[in-house]
Amino acid sequence: MRHFRVFLSVILCIVGCVLFVGSAAAQPAASVTPPAHWKHDIAAFVAHDKTNPPLQHGVLFIGSSSIRRWPTLQEDFPGVPVINRGFGGSTIADSTYYAD
């Protein structure tokens, strides 16, 4: 069952990226504005990382609540240092803005 969830998550990520790229190509480029409503979540990640730095060469999982609420992320990727950075109802634009 765990492998099925991982497989399904990967497929959903791929489909989401394809849909996003397709829709973004059809729209004119917009300026990037800092999404201020996520600053509290990002500040919490930064504060946590200062006292508990993520492992080097970790795999970053970034996205909305589907990532934030993934309770078995570590178990689904055994031997992989995962970094869970899901925040609220964030969009791909929010995630790319705060990716660094």
Textual characterization of the structure:
The chain has helices spanning 2-25, 39-51, 65-68, 73-76, 92-98; strands at residues 59-63, 82-86. Mean pLDDT is 77; it is low at 22-29. 52% of the residues lie in helices and 10% in strands. The chain is mainly alpha-helical and 100 residues long. It has one domain. The termini are far apart.
Highlighted features:
100 residues, globular
Write the layout of secondary structure elements.
Blueprint: H1 2-25, H2 39-51, E1 59-63, H3 65-68, H4 73-76, E2 82-86, H5 92-98
**Helix segment tally:** 5
Domain module tally: 1
Q: Beta fraction of the residues?
A: 5-15%
Mean pLDDT, all residues = 77
Helix content: 40-55%
Class of secondary structure makeup = mainly alpha
Q: Report the end-to-end length measured between terminal Cα atoms.
A: 33 Å
Provide the spatial order of strands within the biggest beta sheet: 1-2
Query: Helix and strand string, N-terminal first?
Result: HHEHHEH
Low-confidence stretches: 22-29
* Number of DSSP E strands: 2
The main β sheet shows up as:
2 strands, parallel
Dominant shape: globular
Radius of gyration: 15 Å
